[in-house]
Specification:
Layout (H helix, E strand, L loop, with lengths): L12 H9 L4 E2 L2 H5 L11 E6 L4 H10 L3 E4 L17 E4 L9 E6 H4 L9 E3 L18 H4 L3 H6 L17 E3 L2 H17 L11 H13 L4 H7 L5 H13 L19 E6 L11 E7 L5 E6 L4 H8 L1
Parallel strand pairs: 1-7, 2-5
Antiparallel strand pairs: 3-4, 4-5, 6-7, 8-9, 9-10
Length: 314
């Protein structure tokens, strides 16, 4: 069984042929798409695709008929333990070991709350962006986003495409536009609120997490970005998005002013979490950055208290 590292160009051309046979575009959503939107997202195992409601069964049957895939349960540990995502059909690529894009998840329009024809598709070069970049360059109204546009990254010599391409024959690949993606996520968030009885895990708020990342990485709290995005959203979502953006508080930038001449001169520590409780009992991650070497160490911990923090540093 091949690993994802030993794949060759065109490893998904068979899958793309199924979509072409059904005249269906390749529209990437979720974390894989968000890397093309300027967000620091990691798609893990899943290639997430948006599928027309009317064609999901025939495409699913076609993919299974290739003999390359088997149907498996959705792993909601990659989805913030979000029970809603159990509805998403998931296929495992039997030709490779678990790793990046070893599984395909087929999001119907009804589940993702976005129609394929209404997605305002933006063309991208592959299913995966090696480095995060912003292909929708109209959102480059602030220096922070202008520096990560596809054009700026290319001019700087930053590697955008992975070493191994998913298609060897330039199959057209798209992601939804940023406004349409935000609309879909806002609709998903509203569904969570109106159907709260189906969402018992308060920590697994996947739509809220995605929206926060859009604000964080696209600097949507800045007036020029906010004024650009809000009119492009569906009217039903504008007030809610404006409220979410207004409530966002960006952490101040940490500036190093002292001279750092050797390891451990300066460390920075920060917790992320709480996450869903792991089998080991941990639900926080302590990140420690050595400013001399740039090395970062991540340590899972059960709490964010002083006692556990000190113990981990020993």
């Amino acid at each position: 069984m091949a690993s994802s590292r030993t794949r060759q160009d065109g490893y998904f051309d068979g899958m793309y042929s199924v979509f072409e046979a059904h005249h269906h575009p390749i529209v990437v959503v979720e974390d894989g798409a968000m890397r093309w939107m300027g967000l620091r997202a990691c798609p893990e195992e899943n290639l997430d695709l948006l599928i027309r409601d009317s064609q999901v069964d025939t495409i699913l049957t076609g993919l299974l008929a290739t003999g390359c895939f088997e149907r498996v349960n959705q792993d909601i540990s990659y989805r913030f333990e979000y029970p809603y995502t159990k509805q998403v059909p998931r296929l495992r690529d039997m030709r490779c070991a678990p790793g990046p894009f070893s599984c395909i998840s087929l999001w119907t329009e009804a589940i993702y709350m976005l129609r394929v024809e209404a997605a305002e598709p933006v063309a991208v070069k592959d299913i995966h962006a090696w480095n995060v970049n912003l292909v929708e360059e109209r959102f480059a109204t602030v220096p922070e986003t202008a520096s990560i546009t596809f054009t700026a990254q290319t001019e700087q010599g930053t590697r955008i495409l992975p070493k191994v391409l998913s298609s060897a024959r330039n199959v057209p690949i798209f992601v939804p536009s940023i406004p349409k993606t935000c609309d879909a996520i806002l609709d998903q968030l509203r569904y969570r609120t109106t159907h709260a009885e189906n969402f018992h895990n308060k920590l697994g708020n996947r739509p809220a997490y995605h929206l926060r990342n859009f604000i964080k990485y696209l600097y949507l709290e800045r007036p020029s970005q906010r004024e650009l995005l809000l009119p492009l959203l569906a009217e039903r979502n504008r007030a809610e998005m404006e409220q979410i953006v207004s409530a966002f508080k960006r952490k101040p930038t940490f500036a190093v002013t002292q001279e750092i001449s050797k390891p451990f001169d300066l460390l920075r520590m920060d917790f992320i979490g709480p996450f869903n409780v792991m089998k080991t009992g941990n639900q926080y991650i302590l990140n420690i950055v050595n400013y001399f070497s740039g090395l970062m160490i991540s340590e899972p911990l059960p709490t964010a208290r002083v006692r556990e923090t000190v113990t981990s540093l020993k």
